[in-house]
């Protein structure tokens, strides 16, 4: 059931010329209010060492804090399943109670209001979240050996006893002891590092300004480091694996440029002294914006070929933007998480436009619009809600900021961004703080924009009609979406364009806010209409119903200035264009995305010479996206076309080479040996995508047991998780498994990495549902010793 809090929930008085700001909450959110606390944590100092093979943390954490209330006789700290050795204030042992989640520390004498104190906790932990031990139990010694953290949302409490709440920002300090061969990275400045007896080394990091506890990080492994500097002089440390120097430039491409770009755009210098980025194995997400030290999945550590399939530029820009939005200025609660994620997504999207061009930027936006509309088919939560979901916190929120920038103007938008960042530097914010920034900085009251795009959900659906009348051109616009407590009428400035056959146009911008509007443009008597546009270039998040004549759609597909508008027309024209029209448009077109759509048109019937010519030319294009379009729409490979697909086996893109091999082997089984010979030496990306596909087809056609054994080996914990899931998927398709493979699969069921655990659980179920493999799985389970927790995971395969 939806719970609605309607209209006014609070009134804030602000010390400016603006008397009141209305704070509206339309959908109840239990996370709207910050967690209560008795003290203000000021400084967290952690001394830590490890027994990596056991996944064991040995720590001593020291908390400096200030008492917030008049009389405090206890405090509570978060700590999950730890072995607490002692808790002291100075030399005095403190009494405490611990329920494996919360430590309640008692003070014999109540602490005095505003007084400062320090307490220390000595403890051990074997965390399943928050801190991850990778590769230390690999029997083949092939895996990377690493220790790394992931604190967001509230997971650092699994390895550090702390007040784990984003509202209570602290200065963190880390003293880490590790064997000397490993590099250690944490937040802030490396104050010192020194060699110790026994081959160990002590690393001491400390950050300069308070930051949220979830941003405390640790990254340990064997790395090399390349140093760069921004134009403003900030040192950047770019970590990479030993022996992978060739991946530094492609991975960190644009890093310095985007740093300079953001400093200039935001008008606020990078808010910390240093910035480092470190790749890690088994990372469950894309990356994490830990303050001064971003962690990212090593699937983004790419060479120049892998860059074509998956590059780090977007994620790099996203995490860098977070150093301002999230790390320096932090949302007060998860209700306001959009102030972090939407901002970082907006600015990574903006930088993609800077790096890759306008067309690229516009099609990113188009994809985000579609995601936003799809999300509203499920529910109507607003972006300012803790349960808004990924699409609203990231893509939709980014687009809302884009629209806001269009409404107020780019220069005024960035002026307010600067004002907002400076006003709230190293503090916490909620949604209204950003609204107030526009009022205080520009004198603009944007409550209407906040209400419809931030505090409420849904998107407008416009029904549009165009008529050419005797004395004018007329657009009729209706808002036809369903309206309720969370979705009302939308008020936005929308542009209307009439384009003429001589290349000229008339343009008018109108505020659309009522249920229906009639928009008139002056008629050009001597000119013939070529096509018309409602909201050219898709500037607004919306659905549109606008039935246009066929000839206007063709003209739009050919002549519209923006690639997105040409693309939208082509979607409407699928199955309608003649081969000659497709060929003409393909020759004229400059946009990769539009060319890809024209390739789809051509592939609908390759018996026409014009379509086949477009199809053939597409193969010769040096463009991975066009080649993906071909492969994704292939339904047959005959003798005539075979050589074109064979050419893709040598593509610089590993994904294209893998897909081409798969399609050739599937559609031309009699020639499998030829295709396997051409591909036998290619491994592919870090996850061995081409090699695994090669082994799959080789075993299915030759029954070569060595190839099966190699494929089975890729299921083991010697390899990173994408390799393992690729191998599992291949073996599922082959429907082949052995006891060694079952052992590797079951090992994966206990991984803390859900992106491994989930797919491998599906593979075990796939084979368990077959009588011939069910007994094999049961035998493997019964022939090993398991902990109680592991048995609980496995009992579904033992009990019918």
From TrEMBL:
Gene3D superfamilies documented for this protein: Neutral Protease Domain 2, tricorn interacting facor f3 domain
Family: Belongs to the peptidase M1 family.
EC number of this enzyme: 3.4.11.2
Domain named Peptidase M1 membrane alanine aminopeptidase: residues: 254-453
Gene Ontology biological-process annotations: peptide catabolic process; proteolysis
EC category name: hydrolase
Family annotation (SUPFAM superfamilies): Leukotriene A4 hydrolase N-terminal domain (SSF63737), Metalloproteases ('zincins'), catalytic domain (SSF55486)
GO molecular function: alanyl aminopeptidase activity; metalloaminopeptidase activity; peptide binding; zinc ion binding
Highest rank taxon of the organism: Bacteria
Name of the protein in its database record: Aminopeptidase N
The keyword Signal is assigned to this record: yes
């Amino acid at each position: 059931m939806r719970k609605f809090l309607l209209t006014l929930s609070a009134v804030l008085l602000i010390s400016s010329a603006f008397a009141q700001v209305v704070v509206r909450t339309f959908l109840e959110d239990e996370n709207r209010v910050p967690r209560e606390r008795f003290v203000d944590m000021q400084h967290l100092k952690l001394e830590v060492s490890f027994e990596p093979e056991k996944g064991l943390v040995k720590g001593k954490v020291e908390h400096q804090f200030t008492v917030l209330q008049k009389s405090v006789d206890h405090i509570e700290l978060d700590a999950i399943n730890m072995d607490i050795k002692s808790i002291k204030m100075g030399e005095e042992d403190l009494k405490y109670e611990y329920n494996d989640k919360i430590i309640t520390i008692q003070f014999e004498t109540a602490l005095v209001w505003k007084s400062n104190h320090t307490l220390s906790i000595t403890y051990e932990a074997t965390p399943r979240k928050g801190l991850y031990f990778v590769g230390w139990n690999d029997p083949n010694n092939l895996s990377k050996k690493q220790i790394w953290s992931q604190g967001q949302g509230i997971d650092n409490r699994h390895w550090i006893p702390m007040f784990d709440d984003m509202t209570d920002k602290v200065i963190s300090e880390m003293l880490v002891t590790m064997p000397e061969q490993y590099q250690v990275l944490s937040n802030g400045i490396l104050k010192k590092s020194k060699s110790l007896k026994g081959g160990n080394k002590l690393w001491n990091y400390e950050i300069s300004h308070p930051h949220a506890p979830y941003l405390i990080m640790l990254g340990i492994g064997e790395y090399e480091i390349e140093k760069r500097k921004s134009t403003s002089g900030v040192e950047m440390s770019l970590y990479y694996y030993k022996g992978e120097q060739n991946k530094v430039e492609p991975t960190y491409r644009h890093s310095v440029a985007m740093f300079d770009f953001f400093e200039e755009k935001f008008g606020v210098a990078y808010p910390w002294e240093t910035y480092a980025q470190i790749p890690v194995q088994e990372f469950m997400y894309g990356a994490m914006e830990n303050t001064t030290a971003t962690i990212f999945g090593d699937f983004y550590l790419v060479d120049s070929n892998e860059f074509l399939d998956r590059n780090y530029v977007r994620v790099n820009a996203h995490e860098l933007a977070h150093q301002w939005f999230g790390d320096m200025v932090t949302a007060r609660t998860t209700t306001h998480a959009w102030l972090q994620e939407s901002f970082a997504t907006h600015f990574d999207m903006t930088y993609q436009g800077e790096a890759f061009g306008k067309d690229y930027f516009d099609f990113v936006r188009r994809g985000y619009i579609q995601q936003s509309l799809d999300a509203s088919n499920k529910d109507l939560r607003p972006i300012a809600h803790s349960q808004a979901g990924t699409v609203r916190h990231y893509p939709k929120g980014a687009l809302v900021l884009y629209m806001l920038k269009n409404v107020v103007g780019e220069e005024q938008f960035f002026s307010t961004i600067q004002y907002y960042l400076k006003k709230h530097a190293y503090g916490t914010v909620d949604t209204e703080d950003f609204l107030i920034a526009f009022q205080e900085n520009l004198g603009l009251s944007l409550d209407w924009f906040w209400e419809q795009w931030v505090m409420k959900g849904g998107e407008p659906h416009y029904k549009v009609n165009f008529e050419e009348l005797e004395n004018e051109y007329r657009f009729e616009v209706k808002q036809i979406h369903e309206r309720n407590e969370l979705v009302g009428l939308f008020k936005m400035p929308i542009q209307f364009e009439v384009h003429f056959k001589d290349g000229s146009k008339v343009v008018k911008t109108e505020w659309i806010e009522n249920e229906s509007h009639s928009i008139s443009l002056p008629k050009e008597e001597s000119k013939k209409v070529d096509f018309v546009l409602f909201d050219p270039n898709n500037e607004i998040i919306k659905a549109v119903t606008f039935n246009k004549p066929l000839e206007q759609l063709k003209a739009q597909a050919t002549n519209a200035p923006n690639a997105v508008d040409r693309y939208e027309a082509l979607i409407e024209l699928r199955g309608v264009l003649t081969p000659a029209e497709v060929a003409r448009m393909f020759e004229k077109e400059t946009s990769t995305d539009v060319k890809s759509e024209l390739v789809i048109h051509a592939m609908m019937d390759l018996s026409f010479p014009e379509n086949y010519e477009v199809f053939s030319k597409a193969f010769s294009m040096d463009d991975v996206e066009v080649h993906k379009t071909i492969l994704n729409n292939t339904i047959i490979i005959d003798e005539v076309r075979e050589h074109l697909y064979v050419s893709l086996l040598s593509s610089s893109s590993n994904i294209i080479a893998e897909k081409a091999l798969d399609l050739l082997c599937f559609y031309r089984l009699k020639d499998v040996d030829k295709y396997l010979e051409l591909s036998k030496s290619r491994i592919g990306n870090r996850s061995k995508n081409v090699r695994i596909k090669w082994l799959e087809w080789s075993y299915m056609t030759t029954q070569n047991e060595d190839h099966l054994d190699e494929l089975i080996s890729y299921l083991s914990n010697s390899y990173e998780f994408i390799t393992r899931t690729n191998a599992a998927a291949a073996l599922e398709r082959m429907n082949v498994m052995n006891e060694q493979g079952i052992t590797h699969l079951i090992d994966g069921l206990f991984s803390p990495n859900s992106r491994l655990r989930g797919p491998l659980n599906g593979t075990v179920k796939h084979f368990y549902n077959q009588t011939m493999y069910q007994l094999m799985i049961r035998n493997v389970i019964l022939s090993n010793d398991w902990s109680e927790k592991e048995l609980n995971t496995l009992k579904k395969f033992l009990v019918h």
